[in-house]
Amino acid sequence: LADRGFVVFQLDNRGTGGRGRAAAQKVHKQLGKLELDDQVAGAEWLAAQPFVDGSRIGIYGHSYGGFMAALALLDPRGARVFRAGVAGAPVTDWRLYDTGYTERYMETPQTNPAGYDAADLTKKAAGLSGKLFIMHSLMDENVHYANTARLIDALVAAGKRFDLLVLPGERHGFRAPAARAYVPERVAEFFAENL
After folding, report:
1. SS3 of 49, please?
2. Is 62 a known active-site residue?
3. Which is the catalytic residue, given 37, 38, 163, 172?
4. Chain-centre distance for alpha carbon 120
5. Is 140 a catalytic site residue?
6. For the CA atoms of 173, 122, 32, 57, what is the dihedral angle to 10 degrees?
7. In what order do the strands lie in the sheet with 131-137?
8. Of residues 29 and 72, which shows the higher confidence score?
9. Which one from 62, 63, 93, 136 is the annotated catalytic residue?
10. What is the radius of gyration, based on Cα positions, of the chain?
């Protein structure tokens, strides 16, 4: 992306690992809420820089970052600043993700139904603003493809347009050299066309 003239900015929002238990617990029972606030604040700061066109900011992430990228375009807070997003292998409903990880932050769906509902991207599909590109591998052993399938159904039901790339033979991390070369090229092309 940088080679094509894009400014690349990475922000470690609240809840990011490596800062201790107290920092991780800030997102307890509310995945996506504070993290999106931080991403929006970072994008607003970036937009104020003299070398950035603030009307052309995109967001890109894979796995949890895919959840964040999709959320940024589905939630009105993110829609204010993000014009396009690429969501790779997004978690779209934490009920579908690994309980060993999810319940550390969200507890269970029975003890935290409001938190799970608030982070369910399928319930936000009608709010899609901007251009969304979803990528997911069918053999993903970490974020099951059911996450993307449910989001697709919700976007279609809401009459929202989106782009989709399915990689039938790949896993959560791309292994084939062809896929590792192809995906970044598609991401760069998507942003070049939509920002």
Report:
1. coil
2. no
3. 172
4. 12
5. yes
6. 80
7. 58-62, 84-88, 131-137, 163-167
8. 72
9. 63
10. 16
